[in-house]
Write a structure and sequence with these properties.
With 205 residues, the protein is an all-alpha fold. The protein is built from eight helices and no strands. The chain starts with a helix and ends with a helix.
Length: 205
């Protein structure tokens, strides 16, 4: 288990070697991925509810735990599905499991940075907000770098094909989100119509 945890940090500092080993040497570990996914959710909750009051811009309107869970889970699954669908046409070598595990490992910098900056907001003044923003940017930037390198290694792509894969995956995610919202809206309207119909029937009987 110690080596599996060390491998998470190995992918941070050596993403090319790490994701190559994950794909070819099978060094990725699904339980670690699930833990990272959960920690991503936990870090989102911490960032929302434990941020220092001087840095709190929510004005008391906190995002619900359920919505934070959905926001933490959906992008990872959406990207894995979207990237798989795109790379199927671009002759990618990665499976859904490979892509999902890679994305989860890429979450590590964001998880660490979110927790660290949340703690810092409770001990520093508003004058240091620039440093908090910079730390957050570096975390998300490095996650983006890891994601780009991960796609390249998992699918055995060139840099140009990796770039095309990322762009097309983002477009596919947007389409998936639009279709999902459309379906949910239709379901909501159907249930609303059914409820109104039942109320009408009750009032007439």
């Amino acid at each position: 288990m110690k080596r599996k945890i060390q491998f998470v940090f190995h992918t941070i500092f050596h993403p090319a070697d790490g994701f190559w080993d994950m794909k070819r040497e099978k060094r990725g570990y699904m339980p670690i991925c699930l833990v990272l996914q959960f920690l991503f959710f936990v870090s989102s909750v911490i960032k929302e509810y434990a941020v220092g009051f001087m840095f709190d811009t929510s004005l008391g309107n906190k995002t619900s735990i359920g919505l934070l869970f959905a926001v933490s889970l959906a992008p990872v699954l959406f990207f894995a599905v979207a990237n798989l669908s795109i790379t199927t046409f671009l002759e990618g070598e990665g499976t859904f499991k490979d892509i999902y595990m890679m994305v989860c490992y890429c979450l590590t910098p964001v998880i660490v940075v979110s927790i660290v900056t949340t703690i810092l907001t409770n001990v520093v003044s508003l004058d240091e907000q620039t440093y908090i923003t910079l730390i957050n940017f570096l975390g998300y930037f490095w996650t983006g770098v890891m994601l780009f390198v991960g796609i390249m290694e998992v699918h055995n792509y060139s840099m140009s094909r990796t770039f095309a894969s990322v762009i097309l995956s983002i477009i596919a995610m947007a389409i998936m989100a639009f279709v999902l919202l459309l379906v949910l809206d239709m379901i909501s309207q159907i249930f609303g119509f059914g409820y109104s119909l039942m109320q009408e029937i009750r009032t007439r009987t």
